Automatic annotation (TrEMBL):
GO terms for molecular function: DNA binding. GO terms for biological process: DNA integration; DNA recombination. PROSITE patterns: TYR_RECOMBINASE. It comes from Escherichia coli. SUPFAM superfamilies: DNA breaking-rejoining enzymes. Keywords: DNA recombination, DNA-binding. This is Tyrosine-type recombinase/integrase.
């Protein structure tokens, strides 16, 4: 729809103004593409709850409930923006009425023996990987933050980190041995 192009521009402006992060902007691209492929020729106010649910059920059938959640969340935002611009009547948001897909968290933690096996196998890839693993273990930082760390981030006995995801700044004492 024409509105989706406007929505993309709105999101780009929000990113440029620092209201949303780059990853948030990127995360919206795939759901918007799916929405455009499925419903692009129809007016926004002709989209029904049943239409939204049909896409969510396709995600569920493929075992992609998390992507279904993201699709629904992006559509809720699309229809809210459309309400703001008058492209749909106030309160019209079929995505909000669609039931949120349930996602069962299935994270598994490594045992120490499993971690050591990976650590020892990483030796052949050079010392950088092993040092990164130790740094992650000691600091509890995300992979993206570990990859960004530099020796110049060490000042006054602390490792200074600005987390990419949240922008939070922290100082980790080096005396943690």
């Amino acid at each position: 729809t024409i509105f989706l192009n406007n929505y993309r521009k709105i999101q780009q402006e929000r990113y440029e103004n620092g209201e949303i992060k780059l990853n948030t902007l990127k995360q919206k691209a795939a759901p918007l593409r799916v929405f455009d492929e499925r419903f692009g020729t129809r007016p926004l106010d002709a989209i029904t709850v049943k239409d939204v649910v049909s896409v969510l059920e396709e995600y569920k059938a493929r075992g992609h409930n998390r992507m279904g959640q993201i699709f629904r969340k992006v559509l809720i935002d699309v229809f809210r923006e459309a309400q703001q611009t008058g492209d749909v009547p106030p309160g019209f948001n079929p995505a909000e009425s669609a039931k949120k897909p349930q996602v069962r968290i299935s994270r598994q933690r490594l045992t120490f023996d499993e971690w050591m096996m990976i650590y020892n196998a990483a030796e052949k890839d050079g010392y950088f990987l092993q040092r990164g693993m130790l740094l992650a273990l000691m600091t509890g930082q995300r992979l993206s933050d570990i990859c960004k760390m530099q020796f110049s981030d060490i000042r006054d006995g602390y490792l200074h980190v600005e987390q990419q995801k949240t922008g939070t700044r922290i100082a980790i004492p080096l005396a943690l041995r």
